[in-house]
Amino acid sequence: MSKSRLILLFFLMMPVLTLPAQETWKITSLNWQPYSGAELANQGHSIEKLKQILQQAGIMLEVEFYPWNRAKLLAQKNKEYVGAFPVWPEDIFDKALISLAVDWSEIAVLKRAGTRISFNSVDELFRKYSVGVVSTYIYPKVVMEAMKKYPHHSDGSSNEMTLLKKLETGRDEVAITDPKVMLYLATEQGIDNIEYVKKIMDKELVVAFRDDEENRKRLQVLNNLLRQQKN
Asked: Does residue 65 contact residue 30 with C-beta atoms inside 8 Å?
């Protein structure tokens, strides 16, 4: 082979030799439609949003879905996963590193159609009514304090579907969750007697990373990408 052909071959091979392998982040998640879900288009709009943000840095996202407590445990203990998403900042595993907001959720009060609910604070809501919550969630402080103060009026459900069924049948007078999630499930189940009452707060949806050296770097990468989204 001539010297000129060897030189040409060397330069043709350089991009192959120098391009780094595309990084892939694997996370755990839960079926929390419409934000995330194994059967949803693009695995839910929050998952889709995170994928699009990471793609700007050439990062692929793989998502595995589990019941929520297991999803958090795997993200915390299993190094196969970098973290969990979507997560309220309060609802994380021990020593988690939390990102800036990737998306936004809402926490609100819902009731059955035809019932009258009147309250001026979360404390008053729990004092007057039977309140359904999802027992595997860690709610914001104002809700958790009311649950502790009025345990006889706090009714925990293992998941969103059970919470919906209890509200539909009147076992709970009201429920506290993300209204998009409950109303999505109600539509899927053909349940038409659930009504939105009042917003408690908007709440960030973040990525919760396990705390290790590599994930600290990943947290910085993601936060930089999220800051760029705002500019």
From this structure: yes
- Give pLDDT tens digits for 87-142: 999 999 999 999 999 999 999 999 999 999 999 999 999 999 999 999 999 999 99
Measured CA to CA, the distance from residue 87 to residue 102 in angstroms comes to 10
Question: What residues form DSSP beta bridges with 199?
Answer: 108
Ordered domains of the chain (ranges, CATH): 22-104+204-230 (3.40.190.10), 105-203 (3.40.190.10)
Helices (H), the chain: 3-18, 45-55, 68-77, 122-128, 141-149, 160-169, 179-189, 213-230
SS3 of residue 27 by DSSP: strand
Which helix (H) or strand (E) segment holds residue 210: the answer is none
Helix axes 213-230 and 45-55, enclosed angle (nearest 10):
100
Calpha distance 137→147 (Å, rounded):
12
Q: β-strands 174-177, 131-134: how paired?
A: parallel
Give the per-residue pLDDT at 229: 86
Side-chain-side CA neighbours of 42 within 13 Å: the count stands at 11
Residue 26, token pair as written in the block: 């694997």
